[in-house]
Amino acid sequence: MSIERHPDIAALRDRYDRVAERPVTQVAEGLMFIAALYVAASPWIVGFGDQMGLAMCNLIAGIAVALLAVGFTSAYGRTHGMTFVAPLLGLWMIVSPWLVADVSTTTGMIWSNVLGGAIVCLLGLGVTAMGMREDRGDRMK
What we know:
Blueprint: H1 7-21, H2 23-47, H3 52-79, H4 85-99, H5 107-132
C-alpha cells in the first residue's frame, strides 16, 4: 500500500477538504486575494510608484500573497502547511516602509501599507486557525 492511501492521510485530506468547503474559509481566502491585489497595486493607486524599492516590495509581496490565496482556495489540503506565510508577509507589509532603503515615507504610503498588511495578516491568521481547528462535524459548516 502506498502512503497516499494510508487511512490517516486520507482522513486528513478529507478533513482539509471539509475546511476548504466552509463558506467562512472561502470568504477569508477571497478577501485575502483582494487585499493582496490591492497591496500589489497600491504604489500606483496611492501614488508612491516613484519609490521604486517599496513599490517593488509591495508588488512582490502582494503577488506572493495572491498566489498563496489562490493555492489555498484551489487545494487547501495540499497547501495548508504554508498558511503561516501569509501572516508573515502581512507583517512585512506593515513594517516595510521603515525598513526598505531609500524610501521617503508619506502618510498615504504608511497608511496603505499598515492597513493592507494588517488585513492580510489577520486573514492569514484566520485561514491558518481554520486548518488547525478541531473538526466538530456539522456544527462548523
